[in-house]
Amino acid sequence: MNKLLWLAFLLMIVAQWWAPASMITQKQRVLNKGTRYKFVTAPIDPEDPFRGRYISLNFKENVFAAKPARQFSYGEKVYVSLQVNPEGFASIKDVSSKPVNGNDYVVATVSYNNINRDSSFTTINYPFDKYYMDEFKAPAAEKMYNERRMDSTTKTYALVSIYKGDAVIKDIYFNNIPLLNLLK
Amino acid sequence: MSIQNDLNELLHANIITQETAEKIAGYYQQKKSTSPNKLTAVLGILGALLLGSGIVLIIAHNWDELSRITKTIFAFLPLVIAQLLCACALRKQPRNKVWDEASSVLLFFAIGTSISLISQIYHVSGSLSGFLLTWMLLALPLVYILSSSIVALLIVAGITWYACEAGYFDRSTQVPYAYIIVLLLLIPHYLRFLQSKSNSNYFTWLNWFLVLSLLICLGSFTQSTYKIYEWMFYMYLAFCCLLYNIGRLPFFRQKSLMANPFLVLGAAGILFILFFWSFQFLWQELDNYGKNPDIFSNTIIYIAMLLTLAAFITWLKSRKIPVSGLFDPTGISFSLFFLLIGLLWQHVALNVFMVNIWILLISLFFIRRGAKEDHLGILNFGLIIIAILAICRFFDEQIPFLWRGAFFVIAGAGFFVANSLILRKRKQLSTQKEN
Phi and psi for A167 in degrees, rounded to 5? Predict the structure, then answer.
């Protein structure tokens, strides 16, 4: 009985280590091997009771227009292939409900699908919409964004590493300067 | 000390012998040395709870000046320390309850800290519900390996939060089936206490946590509530009747009111729903907008039927031993409501009348029971139900002022008459005894 208890204890420890360790290896692989894309963004700052304050990111490039129309349902898992537009920012190349080849795609969910006669507009939710920050810096970041929003020359973007469906945010930039450097 | 005084008194009165007195004193001495000090246990657990939640909050500050490696080390540090403490607790022979509980609580929070720090480092967007579920599942073995009761309570609270997040708050609202799985995994722990420690304070706490959790989460298992709100109320009413009937089973009936959350929350829920439907506007709305023709495609109807069946079976069982020989309509309230919303839903006036009469019947049951058992608390509970009913009807413009006034006067007079009758009865009994 005692041996069985110890075995169960060891198994529990392994599971408790495995959960965070697998998160690390998975995300580190995306950072090391992934392609980096710049996503134009608009941040706001909510908070999570355990993981702390974060800035929530809304991406401008989140609508895909298709002709002929495509049918997607709300909450459906989709594979979003990406490309770089002439300004150097990420744009959607294709949205598919079936797995795609290559490394430069991200698995997202459909938040809205509007079908017209022969075309459709699909709005997607990316799996990288939270950027965790120091609790005192997050409101400052939000304030800074609001102040500069009127200035059309300011470009806010998130540098995101994309690899085989998964994604990790590297940094947030205001006109090519990292957000954390601006807040120091 | 007080036992020693009592023993001396009994010795002097020649009720027990010197040998028996020594045996009794020895027994209590031994009991004192083997059972852990309650104060130490409470302080130990409270300390671990505060320390653990404090670490979670400090981590949530999000130290972005620290490098990724440093943060990763900090993510595992509390986990390793807490796991080592748990290993020490597991090695202790005989096992020490305070050690087991305190180290388990620390490990519980260390698991949450570790996952949340990794989420921060890599900006993982995963939902709060997914985070809570992973945390609770990783902590669950502690309930069995270290027999931690506090962790079991924390897990019940955690999965309740998970079910609310997943079922009520998430953008793409899902049915939180994992909630049921975690509850099922806690059943052996519950049964262990039910069989051997059902009189412990902890068992009372566990019951309160479970009943409250089920009441909060039940609604999250239904899909769209469009045009089915009456079934939502019915489902909750059937569930509250089930709770009430469980609370009236012989096992729980003998317990005090505080130790019987089934009875307390069941009765409160039944009355709350009935009072709500004693007004005309909900019935009127049901009649105006009609019923959802596609009701059978929603899980709500199946959950409601299952609960009805369970409530009916427990009602039959609890009925075998009637309270003071009276018929208690409270636990069978679902049958009336089922009839009204299932068949008679278009007869607005009749339905309002029936619900009001039913509430009156429930209140009369409690008043009669209180009078029979010579229990002022129960009697006044019945009178309070009538008083609330009178207040609800005060706003009912359809009832003439004269009737409403009469109802109030009767309810008010009821309080005075019933209470004074019981007090007089008590006085008579005490004078008879004295004579």
Answer: -145, 145
